[in-house]
Predict the structure of Two component transcriptional regulator, LuxR family.
Amino acid sequence: MIKVLIADNHPVVRLGIKQVLESSSDIEIIADVSTTSELFETLGKMTPDVVILEMDIPEINGIATLRKMKLEFPNIKTLMYSGQSEDVYALSTIRAGAYGYLSKTADLDYIISAVRKVSDGNMFITNELAQRLAFDEGTQKPRRFFRKLSSREVEVLKLLASGKRNKEVAEGLNLNEKTVSTYKARLMKKLNVDNLVDLLQQAKALELY
């Protein structure tokens, strides 16, 4: 039996995932939580095989939560589940330690196969995403840049794009301001821009707004 914990701040989403997964005889939902503090409190009491983690779960963002889980609970496998741009975030979350990434726009049938694959220690991304990562369409040219970015750089860029100042970015990611400035300079170089306005335009092209 595959034991699953669902971490998502939307009750309807948690209920929907539960209903889909519980239709499978080899999957058991052992808990569901709505915040990162609830997640870590629950993980201190029980050990799921797979955590389905929402990218924008409250309190700590999904990638930071994923990193913390990898440190504190290295044997638990994580499947990221998100409404965020799959093209941009899938590789970033996998680089940060996720075993798979599933978009909330994907067919429901994918959830069961994703959980099974991840529980076996295999990577999961949809066939559609695999094809898009293999072949860049001309219309998606700006998205090529995301492959150059580390998961931490994506986090910094997203916070900057949301209007956060360096100090707020530093506090949100537990970094110092000088490090954030270094990340900002690195982002400008990688995204081939020389000012903040153009950097935020790239963030928009990457669907980070």
